[in-house]
Amino acid sequence: MFHLMFSLPCLVVLVRWLWPLPVSGRTRLAGAVVLLLASQYHLWSRLSSGSVFSPEFPKFVVILFNWAFGAILLLAVFQLLLDVGALAVALARRRRAPIAVRLRIAIGIAAMLLAALGVMQAIKSPPLKDLQIEVRNLPPEFDGYRVLHLTDLHISRLFDAPWTRKVVDDANALGADLIVITGDLIDGNIAQREADVAPLRDLHAPDGVWVIPGNHEYFFGHREWMAYFAGLDMTPLDNSHAIIKRGAGQLVLAGVNDVTAPSTGAPAPDLDAALRGAPAGVPVVLLDHQPRNARFSASRGVALQLSGHTHGGMIVGLDRVVARANNGFVSGRYEVDGMTLYLNNGTALWPGFALRLGVPAELTRITLRRQAPRTAPSS
């Protein structure tokens, strides 16, 4: 089903774009073969590693596949829009409205150029995004406290050791008090990713580096990876919490498992267990890979939830579809029943679909601020 779904754009391109072109049968056949090979990128990934989520090809091949796959997807969308336009013109004129060859060629070139731009935007080092978030009941000692939020690194053949080293160096230079990583750190097993993950050992902040699992950790051995991260001086939060102290002030940092955990036999996310024993009246910052349970988090008194998973939708327009699959959340800041949800676009993204158009990656430095007291309206 997975491979069939990702084959549909190729079918549209073959039937509605390639076949009507005035070229020889041999050229059509050669083009069809290339398109079919490129459209099965995830099948070749599965054959290379046993998983569609971990393409074990040289980096330039992964880049080439992402460009070709992205071009097919964009071209399918452009062709469908062109068909709808032609249909509208035909209905208005009450006669057939053929699509000019130059228009077909133009959308083909546009799709290839946009796909190339999208891949370039996806694989470059993420820029800094600075923001301030007010937190209710934040102790004075934490006013101005800086949290660096990383998520969805997807360390892989595409986001490899040099890329990880650059992210670590950039992160350390930002002077955060605390670093949190909200899941999907890897694509691949430990043997495949050991060298690429190694730079994470050098991440440092005064109050430590904390990590929770995302859904991709469960694809590649959640327990082994969380233990491995602990060996890199990152502290896992599996349905648990820690207390961060500054003088007399306290902050609860909690983390839950991903919602996909039960499908692998791992414990489900359990916010109540994560908060059990936490001191009353202390603001809670929750790490939850996916944003979909934000309203439940708010009902449990969480002040700030940090999430990832959506990659911000990756492409303008596609973000609306991604939002529908995540209870309306896709990118940025949301106020949810008195709680702030910050949904990070991702430090990187899945190497199986590495395109960004209008939705940049981010290194997110959050400065916590005390929430100003609300004044009663004057009578």
Give descriptors for this structure.
single chain; Purple Acid Phosphatase, chain A, domain 2; 2 domains; six-stranded mixed sheet; 12 helices; 17% strand; elongated
Describe this structure as you would to a colleague.
- The protein is an alpha/beta fold and 379 residues long.
- The chain folds into two domains: 2-123, no CATH class; 128-370, 4-Layer Sandwich (Purple Acid Phosphatase, chain A, domain 2), CATH 3.60.21.
- It is 40% helix and 17% strand.
- It is built from twelve helices and twelve strands.
- The strands form two sheets. A six-stranded mixed sheet has the order 1-12-2-3-4-5, covered by helices on one side. It has a six-stranded mixed sheet with strand order 6-7-8-9-11-10.
- The longest helix has 35 residues, at 59-93.
- The model has no long low-confidence stretch (mean pLDDT 95).
What name goes with the CATH superfamily of the largest domain? Metallo-dependent phosphatases
Shape call? elongated
Uncertain segments are none
Architecture of the largest domain, CATH level 2? 4-Layer Sandwich
Secondary structure blueprint with pairings:
Elements lengths: L1 H17 L6 H15 L1 H9 L9 H35 L7 H23 L4 E8 L10 E5 L10 H12 L5 E5 L7 H8 L11 E4 L2 H5 L2 H10 L3 E2 L3 E7 L2 E7 L15 H5 L8 E4 L6 H6 L4 E4 L10 H7 L7 E5 L2 E5 L19 E8 L9
Helix pairs in contact: 1-2, 1-4, 4-5
